Amino acid sequence: MSKKPPLIIIVGPTASGKTALSIKLAKKFNGEIVSADSRQVYRGMDIGTGKASKSEQRQVKHHLLDIVDPRHKYNVSHFQKDAVKAIKQIQKRGKLPFLVGGTAFWIDVVVYDLDLPSVKPNRTLRKRLTKLPPSKLYSMLKKIDPDRARMIDKNNPYRIIRAIEIVKSTGKPVPKITKKSPYDLAWLGITLPRTKLNKRIDKRLAARMQKGMVSEVIGLLKRGVPASRLLSIGLEYRYVTLYLQGKLTKQEMMAQLRAAIHQYAKRQMTWWKRNDQIHRIKSFAEAEKILRFRNIA
Description:
Oligomer: single chain
Structural class: alpha/beta
Strand order of the largest sheet: 3-2-4-1-5-6
Largest sheet: 6 strands, parallel
CATH class of the domain at 195-264: Mainly Alpha
Low-confidence stretches: none
CATH architecture of the domain at 195-264: Orthogonal Bundle
Mean pLDDT: 93
Radius of gyration: 19 Å
Number of helices: 14
């Protein structure tokens, strides 16, 4: 039996049901959940991020939700530090940590204790790069770090610029993921056929719009979150902001947003397809069986 502390990781594309599964498993195995979602850390971004509801959070303790003002930036280095701290606190209480989310690179950084380059912001470089469209930035990154470009959001200039900044500063791509981990890992990956997943994405998007997605963005703007910030956060926040700016009709917003989320899900699946440690599951029963068989929970 491994002497390393156990860590359960639940991954899957957006709209695959990670939240529901993680809550059910955490209740079953006396666990707590560490959210690994780059947008759920922000306060006031609830509908567009699919954040666990207050009722769900009362069922199981969640960590790293609503910890940052959306006017401020929170990157993978911040997340690594906060997630490791949360995992240690959970373990200290004698509970089982579940790392759950869809931000693939952030998860790998924690799971494999990746030593991230300590690169300070280059104001001169950033000033030059911010003048370029996302498509041009993405082409630049693809040339100097194709692996990072493969997973990054093509419409998120902030992340692309940061990735370029790291390569320009260090002279080399972001370090590749190794398979060594300080934890005894149990990877669970929710699997759905692409057509079924896309239908779930479309249905969820319609529900979010009906629930008040536009009002949520209006509220963020009124609270002083710059439109440029919402555009950089991407997906629902990007396209609803463009709609509110009059740059898209409602029909165009919905069509482009659906396509963007489908593409995002595809990138997530591509990233995890390379991980042969993931147990592909389709139900709670399968997940429970794997954890019991591994004697990890």
